[in-house]
Amino acid sequence: MHLTSPMPLVVPLAIVGLSAIQGAAAKCSDGLVNVVFNTGHGGYTEQRWKQIHSASNWLTFDFGLADKQIPMLHMTNKSIYHAIDIVNGENPPDFMLTFNEPDNEYGSNPREVILQPEEAANLIQPLLKKRGNHTKFIAPVPAFEKLNWLPEFYGNCSCQDAFSAYNVHIYNKTVEQAKDRINDFHKKWNDKPLWITEIAPGQYTGACPSPIPWDHTTKFMQDIYAWGEKNEWIHKIFWNSANEINCTDTNVAASFLIDFKNESTPLLDPFNKLTCS
């Protein structure tokens, strides 16, 4: 009789242990994990994309409609009217990113604005008036989210309700700093979900960190996705970058998944094994 009595205790403990293990390795929410392919050195290629098994979607700075790509609207009339044709065509995309960093001409010093808020508001109006019935538009993303470009844009276009999600770019050395910036943005713009369409532990003082602090980058990446999983208002996070580019871009000099030779970096395997837990 004594031999059988421990069994009911052992089995539940084993089940509890198994459940804890399964919970610790829970997969990320569908659609949360995504990547950015930067232009230069080949940018997106099918070979590179096939190596990134965990990502749901990818973007690049182009209005493309390749498999799993989310197109990005350029800041030209030509792009606006092309987008009108696409969203009203036979196979409209599920999502479309709108203006990317219109408040910052990359490389300009002092900083120059590509489009003033009023110009951007006027430019996008034809698309919003002929938006089709399927594609969801993601709000413009400023380079400097604390400045006044975005409020002025919405004030000029009266189109805030036209967007399904807000959008932000985040580069900080520590994950704590990144969380603070994301939370600050969400406190101001909290009536819609958020897409983080660029994130990495950037802002290195040296242009090309050597050696690259892969351990720090890996921990940052794992922590930010695990934190994003816990916040239901964060719908997508795009890791920057899928591919290696010029290391003088200090935002992505230590965060690329695949190098110039199309070989994996120490970051690719942890990215492919993200559990968001």
Automatic annotation (TrEMBL):
Taken from the record, one Pfam family name reads: Glyco_hydro_cc
Q: Which residues form the signal peptide?
A: 1-26
Gene3D superfamilies recorded: Glycosidases (3.20.20.80)
**Positions of the Asl1-like glycosyl hydrolase catalytic domain:** 42-270
Which keywords are on file for this protein?
Signal
**Which PANTHER family is this protein grouped with?**
ALKALI-SENSITIVE LINKAGE PROTEIN 1 (PTHR34154:SF3)
This protein is called what? Asl1-like glycosyl hydrolase catalytic domain-containing protein
- Biological source species: Penicillium angulare
